[in-house]
Amino acid sequence: MRCKNRAGEGNSTACGLRSAPTDCGGTRLYLTAQERPAPESILYLRVADIRSACEELRSRGVQFSQAPHMIHRHPDGTEEWLAHFNDPEGRPLAIMSAVMP
């Protein structure tokens, strides 16, 4: 399967890139080169408003390991934001949101 990165170019970590954000038929993957296999994969959940989602999750006892932060700005000014936390069994999760200009 050939996937496209956000710039619309074919992409893979085998090409010497440290990471490769991709969109495969509407499913977004973020591939990274690792020296050792990671014990878990991170599940990213898209939310409409990352700040209000964080407030709601915090009110329910969720502790974030990484507060909301911008990870990418598209040419049109749209920003991609992430916030990381763990589920009750310690598995990594993150919420993500696109913030329009």
Record keyword descriptors for this entry.
1 helix; 10% helix; flat; 3-stranded antiparallel β-sheet; 101 residues; 2 domains; 4-stranded mixed β-sheet; 7 strands; 2,3-Dihydroxybiphenyl 1,2-Dioxygenase, domain 1; mainly beta
3D structure, described in words:
- By secondary structure, the chain is mainly beta.
- It folds into 2 domains: 1-38, no CATH class; 40-101, 2,3-Dihydroxybiphenyl 1,2-Dioxygenase, domain 1.
- Helices cover 10% and strands 44% of the residues.
- It has 1 helix and 7 strands.
- It has one helix spanning 50-59; strands at 4-5, 19-24, 27-32, 43-46, 64-73, 79-86, 92-99.
- Strands 4-7-6-5 form a 4-stranded mixed sheet, with helices on one face. It has a 3-stranded antiparallel sheet with strand order 1-2-3, with no helix packed on it.
- Residues 5-14 have low confidence and may be disordered.
